[in-house]
Amino acid sequence: MGTSLFYFLAFVALISALGVVFAKNPIHSVLFLILTFFAISGHYLLLNAQFLAAVNIIVYAGAIMVLFLFVIMFLNLNTDTEPHKPALAKVTAAVAGGLLLLVLIAALRNVTPVGADAATFDSQIGMVNRLGLVLYQQYLLPFELASVLFLVAMVGAVMLGKREEGERNF
Amino acid sequence: MLSIILLSVSGLANLFLGFNRSNRLILPFVLLVLAAVLGVTVSGIDTHGALAVWNQSPYFTGMLTFDRYAQVFTGVMVLTTLLLLPFSQKYVRDGNANLAEYYSILLFSLVGGIMMVSYNNLLIFFLGVETLSIAMYVLAGSDKSNLRSNEAALKYFLMGSFTTGILLFGIALLYGATGTFDLAQMGNAVRAIPAADAGLRPMMHIGLLLMLIGVGFKISAAPFHFWTPDVYEGTPTLFTGYMSTVVKTAGVAGFFKLLFVAFGGETIEFWLPTLTAMLVLTLFIGNVGAVAQTNAKRMLAYSSISHAGYLLLALVALQSGRLSVNAIFFYSLAYSVATVAAFAVLKLVHDQRERDDYDGLNGLARTNPLLAFVMTVAMLSLAGIPLTGGFFGKFYLFSAAAQEGHIGLVIFAVVMSAVGIFYYLRPIMAMYMKPAAEGSDAPVFVGGFQSAVLVLLVALTVLLGVWPGVVEGMF
């Protein structure tokens, strides 16, 4: 059951990820991306990471995708305005991406997955309270320092986005 | 740790100073904070003694160590910033509305830099890289009405966030291969891999390779350097100076720590050829690219690529241990001081003459002898002429590499620094040999405090050149 579910989710994730790249219409790309995120959330559930699965849907499939849609609608993107990429760039990108794929497959080919031991497995490991304990004890310092990172991003976004004196954007 | 707290808190406080109508308070406040942080770092109360004990409380669980290594490189970065900021006085005079934000972002980015040199856990390293990079993306675009600046910010942001993805992928694969983010444990796991599970070896290799790409981009090593000239040219000069000094120091020192602690020993055979190829390419592209430039800022961008190449020599000579750490320290100190001096002069000239090509420097020796002299010393130091700090920086790097038997690399690097002398002499020629253009022969305005800092920069460069022992015994 678990294995077939994994293959199904992996199939959906791959197909919809390809859809993101190949869809002509940017809105379709975004919709495919949402599908990809749902499939990945399914993987998180299979890995017993319930909290991550929920956060992935709320943050990525929810908030960030809405942001994407906003930007696409603001810029009024459609197939006519899409910049035409030269053939050389396409070939180079395909060769480079293909090489990366080849190297990754070759590198990970011999890795033997270590399954969880059913006797000692703790099914509560992905629960919010367990996560909180780890986050606020072992990983407290990175957690706090991440706030500096977000502060920089916020200050920067406000600084770049705020209207200067005598300037009108819209 | 104390420096991180001080910088974060005063960065926040500084944002509130921005509510004031007048800008006059902000610069003195920031300089004071930086001086305090430098004092805390140099005095070492953060490193040893009672205050350092709470670092080891269980909450921090070995995420970050403020040891000698971190102390020294934090000192270099804070000193660089402290020497660079007096040249932002024009922003104060013009009543720039975003001044408090600029300084706060700089202070926060220093926190990122300190994380990158004091991390003990790859999670902290990644957070540091991101804090530093995001601050740089914003500052690259801080001149909002300038199209060049917008272009620089967008280019840097798009490419930078893509490489961040690659870096993160590398860290994830390393975690997969070793099962830990902790540097020391990762080193143990890496050494145990051949015996434990040989199938994991390629996974570790590919993770390391992806990290090499990510960090290579941040320090603008070839072949990941393509963004550098455009971004450096478009970014406001003050922040270009910051980018080419602090970011480079943090990146090289952080990556050295990773390679030294976790990937020394037998693993060297895997990454050494890659790193050597990158080094040769970086030195070649940086030095040959700089020859063709007519813009002083673009020239300094290529020169910063070539200096990344020299610094990679220390990574190649990693096995020499103390020797190469000392070389990185001395070189980044000498290079930072000289680069700050060069960008300071360019900034002052740009503020008045509004151009930063070589011809903009014409006749500077007549109108501003001090500026011309500072620029000359800076250029000579970057070129590695004796009696300047740059000479001993290169000397330490080359001797570390030679000790490890990389004679061919050292000869190549020496040839490349001979090429360097050619393009570093061009601004000097422009200043001393060519007359100023009609209408722009008025002396460039230099404040009294700025003159003092310029003299200090020259004094430091010469001091490091005649008495390199003054900073010896750090390690």
TrEMBL record, chain B:
Domain annotation NADH:quinone oxidoreductase/Mrp antiporter transmembrane: ranges: 120-418
Chief location of this protein within or outside the cell: membrane
EC annotation from Swiss-Prot or TrEMBL: 7.1.1.-
Keyword tags: Cell membrane, Membrane, NAD, Quinone, Translocase, Transmembrane, Transmembrane helix, Transport
CC terms in the record's Gene Ontology section: endomembrane system; plasma membrane
Family: Belongs to the complex I subunit 2 family.
PANTHER family linked to this entry: NADH DEHYDROGENASE
Name of the protein in question: NADH-quinone oxidoreductase subunit N
Organism for this UniProt entry: Hymenobacter busanensis
GN (gene name): nuoN
